[in-house]
Design a protein that fits this description.
288 residues, alpha/beta, binds fe (ii) ion
Amino acid sequence: MRLRSVELEVPDRATAARFFVGTWGLLDAGERNGTSYLRGTEDLPYVISLTQAATPGVSAVTFSGTRPEILKIRKRAAASGARLGAIRDFDEPGGATGFSVEGPEGHVFRFVTDKRRAKKLRPDRDRPLQVTHVVLNARDREACTRFAVEVLGFKLSDRTGFMNFVRCDRVHHAIAYAKGDNSLLNHIAFEMTDIDAVMRGIGRLKDAGFETFWGPGRHGPGNNVFAYFVAPFGAAIEYTAEVERVASSYKVGKPEDWTWPAKRTDHWGVSERAHPHGSDFAFRPLSG
Ligand SMILES: [Fe+2]
């Protein structure tokens, strides 16, 4: 199982697509039925879809796996009583078949099997490889984590005072739940080739008028380098690199295992607390 894409809805699709391609470094993967598809250089058909809507929203966070993998999740989801969509074909790059399921706070996850694998492109320091994690705000992060582990079959990697990190493959986390008073999208992280690519990204974004609101720095859980920005359509997005790959023997960290230098919020002691930013990106109720 692997995190594949995030399906976004935005009030100005053309501007969002222009930013993602012209500034952020994604590649145009085509347009279908009024939705724009954008890809990275890894072998995934796309990593972000953009559909025009009256208000910002997320229709799903999508994972791809084999048919037996996704059917196993479906069986557990049905048994748990979670809201579950029908199995169907999706008209999108990759030609996916799968279904959506709603978590306890309305976060929608889609599990698909891609018919066609996309061609892996030459890695490029100025382009993301793929989406590597999505952070979701949660009122009850323990209940959400239980759902991810018991129903979706993810593994808990770490807990801090604010976040629970879960994984679906060797990448330290695909989803993290952040303590909050809402269930909105917190941010989407794009994996870059290396730390230089993250730093070059900071420069490119600065030239385009976007300063980091947190970072650069190095996280605790996942040990990844980070830089966060607010995209012109209002979502928080992250360039990251060197995300830890873990083995099944990885020991689950507790809040007391994660401390930072005084007055800092990263391992290097470079970054102070993130400037607060709101998120308008609510999950749409599951639709079939
Ligand atoms: Fe992140």
